[in-house]
């Protein structure tokens, strides 16, 4: 049957998908992508590429970005890969009031400007407030909590199993990439704590007069900020051991509680 359905054909471009060594082959295939780009940094994860340019002038940043995109586009063409320009966006991260953004083109097509961009499941808004990212995180966690509602409300399920379900499914969704965004305003993090509290209330079926602090204490579930603090310390302490140059670049972080815009490790550990 297999001999009739399958035929052997040469692969002239790309990497076969679905194989065990597929990810390894893809890393080899993309190893020679241009990385030495002038005044720009390249973040590459599977088929998601982010190019970052920094400058005091938005025009200079756009010029460097366009030059780097041209080199990357040439590499894609050489290896018969196509760039999806319709999914390519540009976001200007600044606290200045900009009347007009400089135009950036790729292969003769204009790249659209967006007030926020999403990369690896994290939403980055133009002023890095993380408000949009947390709102989307709440939506994802709420959807999962609704799916788990019948399971958490059943009386036949042991309470220990309910708590493990919450800490294994709901909390990882809430804390995804938290070392990056957890330095945001506390008022932005409050909906995440309320969501965790709601999950505990559903699991326990506690009466309306019960205190949330007592429920957390009885179940042995810590406050979300306390959990974020542990995640941050574990993440930042291991930064200097990473091989990725972009990560090592940000490994030297000082704990300064008087920073105007504190790093997440500062905001939640002091």
From TrEMBL:
<feature type="domain" description="Reverse transcriptase">
    <location>
        <begin position="1"/>
        <end position="124"/>
    </location>
</feature>
<protein>
    <recommendedName>
        <fullName>Reverse transcriptase domain-containing protein</fullName>
    </recommendedName>
</protein>
<dbReference type="InterPro" id="IPR000477">
    <property type="entry name" value="RT_dom"/>
</dbReference>
<dbReference type="InterPro" id="IPR043502">
    <property type="entry name" value="DNA/RNA_pol_sf"/>
</dbReference>
<dbReference type="Pfam" id="PF00078">
    <property type="entry name" value="RVT_1"/>
</dbReference>
